[in-house]
Amino acid sequence: MLQSVKTIVLCGKPLDFGVLEEIGSGMARPVADKAGMERVAAAHKVIVDRITMGLPVYGTNTGVGSMKDRLWTADDLADFNDSLVRAHHFGTGEFFAARVIRKAIAIRVNTAMRGHTGCSTELIDAFVALMERGIIPAVRRHGSMGCADIGLMGQVAAVLTGIGEAYFNGRLVPAAIALEEVGLKPFVMRPRDALAAVSVNAIAYAAAADVLREAAAAIRVLLVTGVMSSLALGASADPWRVAATLSTRGEALVGSWLYGQSGIADWPLPISIHDPLSLRMTAQVFGAVVDTLLVAAGRLVEATYLSDDNPVVLGGQVHSSGASLPLTTTLYIEAAQTAFSHMARNVLNRCILLSNGGRRNLSVNLVAPGEVATGLGPLMKLAVELYMRVQSLAVPLSAQSIVVAGGLEEEATFLPLIVERMEAQVRDLRQLAAIEAILSAQAIDLVGDQPQGVIKLAYERTRAVSPIYLKDRPLSKEIEAMQAVFTDHDLLRAFVDMAPMPEFDGFFALDK
């Protein structure tokens, strides 16, 4: 059905952002590695041998959670596996995008390829067949506390068995109908398959990969609007040169990029010996964001090949595992959320400097000479709110206490909810970038700058949507239109091509 689509072999090695993007977009479909499938089969035999001897294997011939001490007989296993999937189809809310589910299925298959999961090879084949035939399980977003996405992956596993809903040929249809249309029979879970299908963090990881890449794209746009406003404000480029030479990895990366753009433009002479902190420390703020995001994304890439199952097969034995708690990855993602707050404040401060007047003799509220107008100053109310939205969403969630199974205090990360909050942060940061671009374009026009390079491109795209501000006018639609312009991936690629930051752009596959 999809013979012309590129294939990517999943063999239990890390999946980078480029590979995940190809799979998520549908440009490539995953296939299982032959050697990896042999490891899967060997691990499954260990599970089968153990339950044949009547020995307990968690979630295979025993219950799960508070039912973990209930041992099922051989005659019960078929019903148990079937009911385990049904019991974990409880997600609610909006649906994840199809690209997230494609990535999640690939991650689940990839983590099994190392031979520690204990599931059957038939389960892997069933997952791969969904992707091959173009069936995307419809997964509602709410249903995971971030310690195995049981309520989310349960919706994927249900589709394998002909239950739930799926997207097929652009339609949302009952899973049974989608399977029938492509000639697939509902999958019958074998011992260990049901828990292996529902109790992993694959969807949280896939959604995190999606939002981290979007965050990287937003940062690249904010760097452009930041250097655009710095030009309009007459900021000194000297601190960027210092950062490029003497600072830590992220700061040096950003400092070098900023200084490089100042060399392309006809940069104004500094208007003061010491700029305000929001200008002088742009490389430090953005550098910390870049560095934090790279670290968080690096931990996520590691998670795409490491088994987070419970139990696991290790050295021919079955072991209980706590790997379903992705705390390290979550903590780094939360750190990135805090870094976003600093970036939002930095953007807000530059916007205030632009609208306050004084720098380079700019007028208060950027009112054009001779015009009777209130100007762009009122936009600061929106900018402050956007900053506060980004700030409020950075409050850590992972350490919250909860009580779940057996009335005991349990561990959780709330990674899916953290991802959802980061999505809102990215959206608000993009709107801040739109406001900064509108203000900067107005200031550039008022002082008569002739921007070059990436600043010129950003200026031209801004003016195509938001003309010079002379008389007061409603700005709501303009701001939203600018946000859409700066979200467009073609413009991002143009920014990346014109002003590359290879270490960052390449890692997040921003040029794809």
UniProtKB/TrEMBL annotation:
GO molecular function, one term: lyase activity
Transmembrane segments: none
InterPro entries xrefs: Aromatic_Lyase, Fumarase/histidase_N, L-Aspartase-like
UniProt cross-references to Gene3D superfamilies, sorted A to Z: Fumarase/aspartase (Central domain), Fumarase/aspartase (N-terminal domain)
Record keywords, A-Z: Lyase
Protein name stated in the entry: Aromatic amino acid lyase
Source organism per UniProt: Sinorhizobium numidicum
Entry keyword annotation includes Lyase: yes
Source species taxonomy: Bacteria, Pseudomonadati, Pseudomonadota, Alphaproteobacteria, Hyphomicrobiales
Entry superkingdom: Bacteria
